[in-house]
Design goal:
- The chain has 21 helices and 20 strands.
- It is α/β, with parallel strands linked by helices and 510 residues long.
- The chain has a ten-stranded mixed beta sheet, with helices on both faces. An eight-stranded mixed beta sheet has the order 4-3-2-5-6-7-9-20, with helices on both faces.
- Helix 10 packs across helix 19, helix 19 crosses helix 20 and helix 20 (453-470) crosses helix 21 (479-490).
- It starts with a strand and ends in a 5-residue tail after the last strand.
Length: 510
Amino acid sequence: MPAWVVSARESAERDRAAIERGTPSRLLMQRAGTAAAEEISRRYSERLRRGAVVFTGPGNNGGDGWVVAGTLARGGVDVTVVEVAEPNPKKSPDAVAERETAIGSVKLAASAEVGTTFVIDALLGTGFEGEPRGKISEAIATINGLRAQGARVAALDVPSGLDATTGEHSACVIADSTFSFGGVKRGLLLARDCSGEIVALDIGLPASTSAPPLPVLVDEAWVASHVPPIRYDAHKGTRKHLAVIGGGRGMPGAVVLASRAALRSGIGLVRVLVAPDNVSPVLAAVPSALITEWPSTEVQIEAEISKWADAIVIGPGLGKSKETRLLVERILAKSKLPVLLDADALNVFDGDTKSLAKVLGGRPALITPHPAEFARLTGTDVKTVLATRFDVGADLARELRATVLLKGSPTVIFAPDGRRYVIARGTAALGTGGSGDLLDGIVGTMLAQTLDATVAGCCAAWVHGRAAEFCQYVRGTTLDDVLYALPRAWNETALTPEPPVLAELPAVAT
């Protein structure tokens, strides 16, 4: 079962659907708390030898906390509950019932003792919006103070005070781990520095049937199942050919990075087509690639691209001008190969998506804008793109009949048929010039080998991010380090999470 990425509203709708199909709401609470307790016991067994303190609030999140407290206590853990607010019988009868079940096996205290080493945050859940106040606000500050003194903090569903949809917060718990129920909340992916390790837990919710489909979190098992194997008898032909067009005057570096990434991703042969001045420097930097000048005739396009390549990447370092737009249009008019457009190959179509759709012509195609490029292309603003990143690309993908890969943290991929995928791997080491060029080479390889633009985008974005995670540091890491880590990322053994875990994301590196 995939891990869905959901807003607070979508999370509530899934819970409601399960209840309407016959699952009692209290049973969902028990499943959530029990699953969280099991994973907490597995991950923090040493810490739990010295006990645990559970902070509970007045709602269903507090009820989850009472289930966790009771489950841990019955397993032999010394559990103290700091009840910041009693559950409301009218709004949270399930939480009242779970409190009654657990209260006899735990200790109640007005505050956590000095020296507390493990804290469970069950103050505020998915339905919270706004700013914490009063005793809840004080409890959040207390939890963060304990963490600053060395305690580890596990949050249930979301860190208290964090908006589950937007990731916004004025004051929230800073967690080492967050155990998200039934899927991954959008806000966790937008506030990774507050969420710590993210663990999505299965609580028996039915498969999503929403329209459009909920976004799927791409993981290593998904990638492994979609990357075609390279046979023992493969050669440069069967491993496919990729044409990379870019490298405008004074900008050879982008195509160098894209070509190197393609070669480290398993492509059989790369041909790089650049401005005349860049032939020599690119040849020196990537001697295993074929280097030629931009095609000036249809005969050259046919010979060097259409009849030679299996896929095309256009854009790295291309330059934005009337000349380069004509080059893009000529190549795409002559060739119907699968294509990736990035950087200036997109920028030359700013505000003109109708023309872009026409030149793409319904072929397998992918565009990879960052938020500012997306905003210019569609005539919107960056703030809107960032605020609606999980939804904003759907209409454009449908209009272009192409896959839209919206770069960012997280990256969101929109297929023309409405499917959405989320890639939440990587570190801030990728936040540097040229990172997108690496991605181009990886996507281009997968596009040539699968002929599926959506699969190519998902696999490439995941591997790109995973390679960055293999680099030990953020400060001091260069794109060369990410390149050298690509073989490890491509060949990592896929692990299927053990139930009840649906998906896991590591705490972000700094």
